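To whoever picks this up:

The parser on our side crashed when reading a file containing two proteins. I've narrowed it down to the boundary between the first structure block and the second sequence. Both blocks are reproduced below exactly, byte for byte. First block:
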Amino acid sequence: MEVITIEFRIQLVGLIVVLCYIIFNIDDVIWEIVHLIKKRRVNSEADRVSMESLEAIPSKLLAVIVAAWNEDSVLEPMIENMLASAHYPESMYYVFLGVYPNDDATVAVAKRLERKYKNVHMVMNVHAGPTCKADNINNVIAFIKQFEADRGWRFSAIIVHDSEDVVHPYEFKVANFLLERYDALQFPVFPLQRMPTLKNFFRGMTSGTYADEFAQNHFRIMGMRDTMSAIVPSAGTGFVISHRILDEYENEPLFPEDNLTEDYKLSLILAEKGFHVHYVLEKVQRLLDNSTVKWDYIATRSIFPATFKKAVQQKTRWIYGITMQSITFTDIFKPSELSFAGRYTLYRDWKAKIVNLLVLPGYLVFIYFIVSSFVSLPIMYPVSTFAWRACILLTTIMIFHQITRVIAIQHIYGFRSVVFACLLPPLMPIRLIWGNIINLSATLCAWKQLFFGTQKGNKKKKVAWHKTNHEFLEEHVLHRYHRNVGDVLLEKGYLDSDTLQVILDQSLKEGCRLGDALLQSGAVTEEQLMTAVASSQHRLFVKNISSFTCDIADDFDKEWLEQSLVYPLLKTKNGYVMAETNFTQADVYENLEFEGIEIHTVYTTKTKILDSIHGTDTVKGYLNIDFITELLMQDKITWQQAVLALDNQDFTPDILGYMGLKPKEATIQMLPGIEAGAAFAAAQEAAATTD
């Protein structure tokens, strides 16, 4: 009887590993090829979001939810950074902080934020914490519904964020635009990491693996899912849910409370119900400190674990929640409305609990196969045999995966990150292997939890919140994610980077303001400049002063208005809303404020102010300003909301309803003698003539 040698057994095990790896990975290669073919058939640029289109529609009410448990160290800087950087009217988005009665430190922070900002509200959970994250969010949603009922408002959508997120300045603006077409949106999530160096290489190893994986998943794979009309899963943050979905869940909780990955499970449920979750992969230009222009993706930046233990803990929750709670093998084939692409993505997510176990053995086989081909070692498989061809295919798949990862990392983090992630050392980079070790460990823990955990046999049991502690970024790092005038001018396409740099150098040389230099050079118009200035300073820009048809200008001396370059738009309870320019002196309202008159300001152009003072601006609005003023005096809308409604009244006769601000009992009130339809048509015709 022939003896089975150890070498034969090793070869057999190696072949089994190779075949399993190929079986579970070859489909990814095919999927990539099919995606490339389909992408070439459609004009993807047609769906790109332009800055012009973002400005074309008025702002709608948005609700931002941040669920917090033991987040006192990061919650305040996160919220303050979001409020300071968001390019969206502050009166059109409200932030709701979900906290627990037994989390005194976080409650204290939430109360402080609520007192400081009018658009921030603390929502106390009815249960002691920690419950699950889904329960926290559902509790906040219930509060939002009551908030809407009390005010007669309607939020266009809710946006879910984590308490350690750096929210992109244009996220709300893009969401406001895309909600016209989609039921839900998922923005990319890219981990924050310090610039990699040899000095911090090992210290940033674990967090770096998150950057590599999210770059590949959120730059390539999520985009492929969207292009192929497959299931786009929620990432748990940067997730936008339209009110149309909330209406579907009128009397039941939105997020499932029996799942560790409630966000992923919800996206599956929405897909089965026929709701379309769109993946948003958009980018804008910005000017760096070194005068170079960089493409910046409109994405959520988040801080991820930096230690092996915390990373394994977090990924265990992900793997268990997605592959063992949310998806069963039968779910892939059961009767449903899902397309083939949708079913495939379910399979792709499900197989992670198997693939993660094969990666490291696959690497060992791969390393030995390559080394034995060049070094004097026993040949693993003879040339041209089936096993040899299988190893060649395995090698090809691994190289393919590495190439796609290199492309993704280079797009998101730059070439230096590529070197540290994929090329150090060559062939078998340390960071890649470390990431696979983390995934292997987390998968083993998930399997252990499946067979021996507390959730076994009780799928309906509510799960506790397994959270990961975080630290927030320093102020100087956060400043990189804010926008200045130059950034806005580039992003809006008003001028190119070369022209901007020339004028910047000129303004520094002559000691004048950038705005003056831009106007003198003729590079931008006055309106373009003031729009950019207003955006960078997070102030409203009024484009249609003539829409504010009222007599309050008579309250002021005409000569003073002209000299001061200001114009009154609205009367409030305690003062006025005044239009000014960037060239208006800061102390112009000193005497008025001394008399106790409250002044709110918006931006416009010098030309529009002078035309309004002299009565030469003849385009008028059609909404009854007294009606808007009454709502303002009754505190049913804010002064900013009143300004936005009047400035955008030519968009639709029911502008208050469109923005989500119309009280239930209110009806459109036009100027006397003007019907809504005629007024709207006239406004549209006037706008077209002006253009």
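<<boundary where parser fails>>
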Amino acid sequence: MKGWMREYFSIPNLLGYFRLILAVVYLAVCFEARTQQDYYIAAGIIGISMLSDFLDGKIARHFNMITNWGKILDPVADKVTLGVVAVSFSFRYPLMRTVVLIFIFKELFMGASGLLLMRKGWRTGGATWPGKICTAGLYIISFVLLLFPDLKILQVNLLMVLEIGLMFFALVSYIELYARVLGELRRGVLGGDINMKALTQELRQRHRKYRWAVPVLLILFCMYLLVGAVLPFTKHPEVKKQTKGGFDVSECYGSGIGSDRARILEDNGEALDERIRLIAGAKERIILSTFDFRADDGGLDILAALLDAADRGVQVEVFADGFNSWVNMEGNPYFYALSSHPNGKIILYNKLNPLKPWNIMGRMHDKYVIADDTAYILGGRNTFNYFLGDYKGHKNYDRDILVYHAGQGESSLKEVEAYYRRITSLDYCSVFHDKEKIGDYISVRRAGQNLRERFQCIREEKPQLFEAGYDYREHTYETRQVHLLSNPIHRYAKEPVLFYEIMALIEAEPGNSVIHTPYAICNDYMYQELSKAGKKVRMMQNSAANNGNMFAAVDYLRNKGRLIDTGIQLLEYEGGVSYHGKSVAVGEELSLFGSFNMDMRSAYIDTELMLAVDSPQINRQLRKNLESYEEKAAVVETESEYSYIPEGISQKEMSGKKKAFQFFLGGILERLRFLL
């Protein structure tokens, strides 16, 4: 009896049973976790499990309690604990499912190989150092994810990629080790117990001969990514004769009252409210296109409204850029709550694929919201706090235009929707996690419930947005014509169609025009076209110190003189908040609104939209808004001098970060400025 008790119920084995129980307790706590405290408890359980794993080995060796059953129980408890931890995170982070699959494959291989070698007379001496590193990595990553459950998806994915690399390294090491042992056994060199430590040490010495291989391969892969991503865009296509002949300036102008009415949305809070009002009033379909969608307060408000619309039976479609979706949407249960809904769909433009770097740079930069055949909003705002709502923290100033179809004749809404249908039909547009079973995940159900509760709070706090019979006609102005202008929609280097059309409209206008852009990064062709307009154009952009885009700020300092040489009147905005508005007032009648920055990315790489609105009233509204920003802008005379600095406006100094960036990377960026 004493031998039986010693074999199965020694203190180290009891600790092994304890770890198995803890694995079950952890799983229950983790799945029901709702608060930060719950995640701390789950982390504490894993910590206790790790401590017991450390103690059982020490106790077994110190008190001579090593048993055959313990040799089986200990690794089983380890693998069960690790497997449970990995599986628990796979419900929150899709990339963890890859970790789980590799983990299962590794353990099955090790188990099968170990059994095969044991039948041939070999007895293992325990885990190898690559295996220990892999295990430690998974434990550390688990602690990080539990202690910081709100970690950004990009950071989480990087941790997952690191663990996948460690697992592959451990797997390859075990394959090499077992192959070596099998070969030795076949030759009759080894028998009985093998000094695993000595054998792994020998393999480690062999690996040192090839220690240069990993960094070299990493450098080669980075070069592959860099060259592959950059090379396709080094040559800028010229504007074709067909493009020039196919564009008629008169298409942007109308005669008489048109079927669309419009209003500018200048304030970030108003921009959020009008989006919610539009979505809440939809009865058939909602289409939202956005470059960047994040699950912060502003983004969650929009997601809550979209999910509520889907619950009402409205067909909801979200169109997002593939790169930003990987950074901010992948693995986020709030987006899964919408994508898995029977009435919800999220479509991605050019999903990120690092193995095909020549596709990486092609981005979708369009921003608009369409509700039924009633109205739409189009402009430069992305879907998160920087641009929507009046939440604390960093913000950008931007601009949208709301267009209401008054019900007479064809509306420009059809143009925008036709563009959406055309671009989403491309082969490299794909659907984002639309399987309904995803909605059954605990984290996704919880996220959906949070969104529904959030929407109820919005209804209570802002009842005016949900009043029946809101009269868009009363809150909009007449237009004579509203016409959509766009870039080519493919993902490779483009003709600068939209830039050409903007400049053609400006050059055809005898009066003065005003361009507002966050920054200007131009090539020779763009400088040449700006020179043609010359003094009849006034252009405002952020000063280098006020610019939220560090790359653009550095480029502006290096190429400011070239902008001055075009002859345009150049203004630098010093308002303290980065300006993101992209608008053009063409003369006294035509106004342009949209996503187009005055840079080479917008001209030659990204998909872009600008809405041309022929309306003296809208033009006056726009010019008034533009002037309100220009009151905080300095007029540039030379690269270092200003002809006018508004009273009360102090020109900020460049931050140390930007100065260091300019000093160390300015020369490199100069050669890559067409990608900025």
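After patching the parser it read the second block fine. The chain is about 50% helix and 15% strand. Residues 555 and 670 are 7 Å apart (CA to CA).
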